[in-house]
Amino acid sequence: MLDFVRRSSASFVACRRYAMPACLTLATLFSVSARAVEKAAEVKGAEVKAAEQRLYDAVKLLAADELEGRGVGTQGLDRAADYIAGQFKSLGLKTSLFDGGPFQRFNMVVASELGSPNRLTLVAPAPGQPNGAEQELKLGEDFNPLAIGGSGKFDLPLVFAGYGISAKDEKYDDYAAIDVEGKAVLLLRHEPQQNNPHSAFNGTDNSMHAYYTRKVSNAYQHGAAAVVLCNDAFDLQKNVERRVKRWQAGIDELTAGQAKFKEIEKPTQEQIETQRLAVDKLLKDIAAQSELLKAAYDPLIAFHGAGSGDEAHKMPVVFCRREIVEPLVKAALGKSLADLEQAIDAGPAPHSADLPGCRLKGEITVLRREAEVKNVVAVLEGEGPRAEETLVVGAHYDHLGLGGEGSLANGVKAVHNGADDNASGTAALIEVARRLTANGEKPSRRVVFIAFTGEERGLVGSARYCRDPIVPLEKTIAMLNMDMVGRLTDDKLIIQGVDTATEFAPLIDSLTERYGFKVTRQPGGFGPSDHSSFYSHKVPVMHFFTGTHSDYHRPSDDVEKINLPGMRRVADMVADAALALVRAGERPQYLEVKAKPRGQGGDRPYFGSIPDFASEEPGYHLGGVSPGSPADKGGLKAGDAIIKLGEYKIGNLEDFDGALRKYKAGDKVAIVVLRAGEQVKLEVVLDPPR
């Protein structure tokens, strides 16, 4: 630059001496150049401002209260889908893909509801009554069906199976000495030795065996046809003692306050009114604690009290008050439930037994409410010899609705706007599509843009697309995913999957230098977002993410907290990555990365399966298997449904997880899967936990 200035200055002197017109020309040149640079900066600034305004408008619309948190099954989610489809169409993308439109439609369960009829009768042995004595129970007072169970009519023999636990490491199995095939099992809540800090069941804290879903799953694995749950004595005593303390504290406070008030010889009207208000408040608190104390004696849990029923079993599951089933057990075994619990704790050792003459009769109706949901898909067609090769760019657009399961704001029913999760990714997806269509030219490869539904329910939308893609997955060269890209802090950008293709690392190196991000590279292609569905089908992936924050999965995730310049930069980087991939001479070379998939870990043996949450049929359905994993080596494939693991029946993911924990690394386990409607027998050798 300095040499240029020197040469320019010399020319200028010569101009003044010999050729004034030439001097004017050079001055004009400098002026024009300066104006051109200034004009280019103005244009660039206007483009940046316009892009950030578009991103803001999109996030504001998608995260508005009127869209109801974009919960699955809400009108707000449908409105979001319509908006995205309109944006895709306005950019000139091809949207006539599914019956003339952009929506890949399918149904999924969005809620479990109590139907009708729901009736339950206990039959107990009774002298002089060969068919036993029947006791018809009252719905909502004596029993409640649970959402984690199913529907059906039944008349079944009843078996007491203790706490319903099979724990290999703890050397305890309530099912070891009884046959529950085709029977109803009566189970206690929680687990043995709850007051023993040295208990094998995690001391005085609950272990995984204490949970409702694990108990129901274990009963199913052992062939039970129905489950009856009731309160255990220790938990009731603990809760009653706690409530008594709260109730007594209120009485003590009232007594002390009254005694202090009596010490006032001549109380003023203000003092009297103050004391009256204090007494009224304390009496209300005492009355409330009294009601809670009454309920603590033998509470009846609600229909959804054991879970939402997203992965429910078809067999009926009911909860009965303890005082209802106690006489039946006493009549059959000559022992109370308290006697049996003490005997179990003494070991701990199972005291399971058939209940002679006892039966469970009735009909339970649990309704699964379905809603039509849809992925929003648009295509930018390619041109040339590689036009059939396809790049997928995606982001999910659903969120948590009014909260509930998945929300980190416990007990709060409010719109979870999801501005960052994932209105930000959806808005960025639209902006990337705008960048790729800006010049009106067709790329060398096809680009498919997808806004996925059902991600918060377990990657449902992306799993469905991978099952029924508009372009075969073997022609899909890569998938770029954006999930929570709106809260960039200190230029820190997380990219997962850079190691899933040979060409990704140098591409990200060049883009990082251009955009100035501080990139953290997370290994492997499996993670808690939609890119996992593609990587399980051996498609290279990159997942872009600006990090979690205190508003994650809470109502406070609002548009005002979005970092618009950071979000625009991420969208620009993804657009440049997409352009580089569609223009490259060769497609990315897929690399197997032996990283654990979502949901793996802990103390169970490593299996290497990837769940497909989009299926509602019985069995544990696989979206894929991790490369080089026991599942992969054993011959399992995407689309398989595991229905038996060793000796255990498998109806869903919970059953699979529970059954897998009964084995150890190195065990060779027989597997039965449903594949294209046929049962296929396989064997898997389990790896150590990861």
Structural account:
With 690 residues, the protein is α/β, with parallel strands linked by helices. 35% of the residues lie in helices and 22% in strands. It is built from 15 helices and 24 strands. It has helices at 2-18, 20-62, 75-90, 212-221, 233-262, 269-296, 322-333, 337-346, 419-437, 460-467, 504-515, 531-535, 564-583, 630-633, 653-660; strands spanning 103-114, 119-126, 129-136, 143-145, 152-160, 166-167, 172-173, 184-188, 226-230, 317-320, 353-364, 366-380, 390-396, 446-452, 476-482, 492-496, 518-522, 541-545, 609-611, 620-625, 641-645, 648-649, 668-675, 678-685. Strands 1-12-14-13-15-18-16-17 form an eight-stranded mixed beta sheet, sandwiched between helices. An eight-stranded mixed beta sheet has the order 3-2-11-5-8-9-10-4, sandwiched between helices. Helix 5 (233-262) packs antiparallel against helix 6 (269-296) and helix 11 (504-515) runs antiparallel to helix 13 (564-583). The two termini are 58 Å apart.
Distance between the termini: 58 Å
Mean pLDDT over the residues: 87
How helix-rich are the residues, as a percent range?
Answer: 25-40%
Query: How is the largest sheet built, in terms of strand order?
Result: 1-12-14-13-15-18-16-17
- Look at the helices and sheets and give the structural class: alpha/beta
Shape: globular
Q: Work out the radius of gyration.
A: 33 Å
- Note the total helix count: 15
Instruction: Show unreliable segments.
Output: 1-24, 595-602
**What can be said about the biggest beta sheet?**
8 strands, mixed
Strand content: 15-25%
Number of strands: 24
